[in-house]
Design a protein that fits this description.
about 35% helix, alpha/beta, Rossmann fold
Length: about 150
């Protein structure tokens, strides 16, 4: 997506590997970024490195996506949301399925509803290729029209 003027983005899961790299890319493109993470699995040093990128256009909010008040403050004035916050460990999901559902399903819904309330223009949600199951290499690369077939 080519963008001519800087926009403000909220990136949940900003302290993770993918989230911090998305933040870095957006900052290098001249956009303002609000990073959001609770450091459950993300790393503070990933966030610390972002403060020197993009001419101080990075703000960080430490919070949980289940906390609507903190999320609401973070999303104010954002044009776009990239939602990357989730519990991704299969072992953790087996050990505590209720918490996994609370964060991955309930948290997603909370972020999405906050985006709607704030008038966000676009909402990007990243998922795992695991939703497609064990795809045959002959089918690669998968398309968005590929039917999900999760095995876990």
């Amino acid at each position: 997506m080519a963008m001519e003027s800087p926009y403000q983005w909220l990136v949940t899961g900003a302290a993770g590997f993918i989230g911090s790299n998305v933040c870095r890319h957006l900052l290098c493109q001249g956009h303002r970024v609000v990073g959001f993470d609770n450091f459950a699995s993300g790393r503070r040093e990933n966030v610390d490195r972002l403060t020197s990128v993009g001419d101080r256009q990075f703000d960080f909010v430490e919070g949980d996506i289940r906390d609507g008040n903190t999320l609401g403050r973070a999303i104010t004035d954002c044009d776009f949301v990239v939602h990357l916050a989730a519990l991704v460990s299969v072992q953790q999901s087996i050990g505590d399925p209720d918490l996994t559902q609370e964060i991955n399903v309930g948290g997603f819904n909370r972020v999405y509803q906050a985006a709607l309330s704030a008038g966000v223009e676009r909402f990007v949600y990243a998922s795992s290729s695991a939703v497609y199951g064990d795809a045959d290499m002959a089918q690669m690369p998968l398309q968005e029209t590929t039917s999900p077939a999760p095995v876990s």
